[in-house]
Design a protein that fits this description.
Blueprint (H helix, E strand, L loop, with lengths): L9 E3 L8 E3 L6 H13 L4 E4 L5 H12 L3 E6 L6 E6 L7 E4 L4 H11 L5 E5 L10 H9 L3 E4 L7 E4 L7 E5 L6 H9 L7 E5 L7 H13 L4 E2 L9 E4 L8 E3 L4 H14 L2 E5 L12 H7 L3 E4 L3 E5 L8 E3 L7 H9 L5 E4 L11 H11 L3 E4 L4 E4 L6 E3 L5 H13 L3 E4 L11 H8 L3
Parallel strand pairs: 2-15, 3-14, 6-7, 10-11, 18-19, 22-23
Antiparallel strand pairs: 1-23, 3-5, 4-5, 7-9, 8-9, 11-13, 12-13, 15-17, 16-17, 19-21, 20-21
Bound molecules: shikimate-3-phosphate and phosphoenolpyruvate (PEP).
The site of phosphoenolpyruvate has 8 residues, from helix 3.
């Protein structure tokens, strides 16, 4: 299937002439929006998503659920303000065809949903989606009673032969390559006849905050979930079968997409305010308050939102990003502009993200004159004086935003295919130039 139209045009990344001082309204969270769409589709009553993210990944999720018979009406919310989507769950139908694009959430969260449809559901996507791991989901669904046709590689393309119900029960998987395997099975678990018990058998498990997000959102729609943190066995999650409630959910801003704007305050010694930063959240981007403070900034969480201020100095950091891997490209970009070296650890699984992010960051920063080396599970970054040049993005939204951060401090950086930010943040170029007052 054809990838998202690649835009090979070069976008001159704006160079900051001084300290930024801006308020940036960041659109809704990809991870929350796509979980909310799945849960609302599996509910026994209609629900609302308010301030959903409208981006390639969330529109692919909505399109896929619609293909399986769910009605999703896009409009304004019950109180007449702001965008809201109304989800009307109906029986899940096949035959259907799902385009996952390169969305991990779509390719992992929907095969379990498809197992509940009453006919075959064919999954296909961008060329990169064929390379991203899916074994945990495919093997688990087979153990739980589903029939799946694939080409034996444990990846897309594939067809799930839904039979209207799935027995469910106990399953053991290795989710060391993606936390999304665990989230996928838990999200549909309440609708399996016996619910589901997922046991992770691998030695590491990335992105724990995203698994907590899954558990919290399941509980918010009435599911009963037992977790290692609630006194259960380590690495075991249990979801009891039961009906899910329709909710009226306000989607939080995407804190990982707030990262480039916070980085702008940090590298220019300026100030950026992100309204509606949640006081409590499972989003991994919340760790930026601590990480970017250690790198030289300071922040204050007010009722209005997060106020983040750079000091004019940017320091290197030695940090394990295993829990918050999607923050790595932005942290690497800041680290390349710092006054001391950095070591980013715990992120070997990033080699299987939108692109091999460790290889891509190393190559692209070094081509601007940087000194980055790959380690077994991360990056060493020794800041050097950088120069302008083309920053390739490999259809990876976070490579594009990382390049924009570098451009603030380095004149003449040109980002290839900035349009790839549409995966999770279609407004990025306008928000960025707006922040800079251009
Ligand atoms: O469940 C989610 O919404 C996500 C989980 C993480 O995936 P991995 O565990 O595969 O890194 C994260 O990197 C991705 O951006 C979103
Ligand atoms: C890894 C990411 O996305 P996906 O949901 O496609 O895995 C990401 O957004 O950084």
């Amino acid at each position: 299937m054809a990838p998202n139209t690649a835009d090979t045009a070069l976008w001159p990344a704006p160079h900051a002439s001084g300290a930024v001082d801006a308020t940036v309204h960041v659109p809704g969270s990809k991870s929350v929006t796509n979980r909310a769409l799945v849960l609302a589709s599996l509910s026994s009553e209609p629900g609302w998503l308010r301030r959903p993210l409208r981006s390639r990944d969330t529109l692919l999720m909505a399109g896929a659920l619609r293909a399986m018979g769910i009605e999703i009406e896009e409009g304004v919310g019950p109180d007449g303000t702001g965008e809201a989507w109304r989800v009307l769950p109906t029986g899940l139908r096949g035959p259907a065809t799902v385009d996952v694009g390169n969305a991990g959430t779509v390719m992992r969260f929907l095969p379990p949903v498809a197992a509940l449809a009453d006919g075959p559901v064919r999954f296909d996507g961008d060329p990169r989606s064929y390379e991203r791991p899916l074994t945990g989901v495919i093997d688990a669904l087979r153990q739980l009673g589903a029939r799946i046709d694939d080409d034996g590689r444990g990846a897309l393309p594939l067809t799930v032969h839904g039979s209207g119900a799935l027995e469910g029960g106990q399953v053991a998987i290795d989710a060391s390559s993606s936390s999304q395997f665990v989230s996928a099975l838990l999200l549909s678990g309440p609708r399996f006849n016996q619910g589901v018990e997922v046991r992770h058998t691998g030695s590491t498990l990335p992105s724990m905050p995203h698994i907590r997000m899954t558990v919290d959102m399941l509980r918010a729609v009435g599911a009963q979930v037992d977790t290692p943190e609630s006194g259960g066995e380590p690495n075991v999650w249990r979801v009891t079968p039961g009906a899910l409630l329709g909710r009226d959910l306000v989607i939080e801003p995407d804190l990982s997409n707030a990262q480039p704007f916070l980085a702008a305050a940090l590298v220019t010694g300026g100030k950026v305010v992100i309204p509606d930063w949640p006081a409590h959240t499972t989003q991994p981007g919340d760790r930026l308050r601590e990480i970017f403070t250690e790198m030289g900034g300071s922040c204050e969480l007010t009722e209005y939102g997060l106020v983040f201020t750079g000091s004019g100095s940017v320091h290197g950091i030695d940090v394990d990003l295993g829990e918050v891997g999607e923050l790595t490209p932005g942290i690497a970009a800041v680290a390349a502009l710092a006054d001391s070296p950095s070591t980013l650890r715990g992120v070997a699984h990033l080699r299987l993200h939108e692109t091999d992010r460790l290889a891509a960051l190393t190559k692209e920063i070094n081509e601007l004159g940087g000194d980055v080396t790959e380690t077994a599970d991360g990056l060493h970054i020794r800041p050097r004086r950088l120069h302008g040049g083309v920053f390739h993005t490999y259809d990876d939204h976070r490579m594009a935003t990382a390049g924009a951060i570098l451009g603030l401090g380095v004149e003449g950086v040109q980002i290839e295919n900035v349009a790839t930010t549409a995966k999770t943040l279609p407004d990025f170029p306008d928000l960025w130039t707006g922040m800079l007052g251009a």
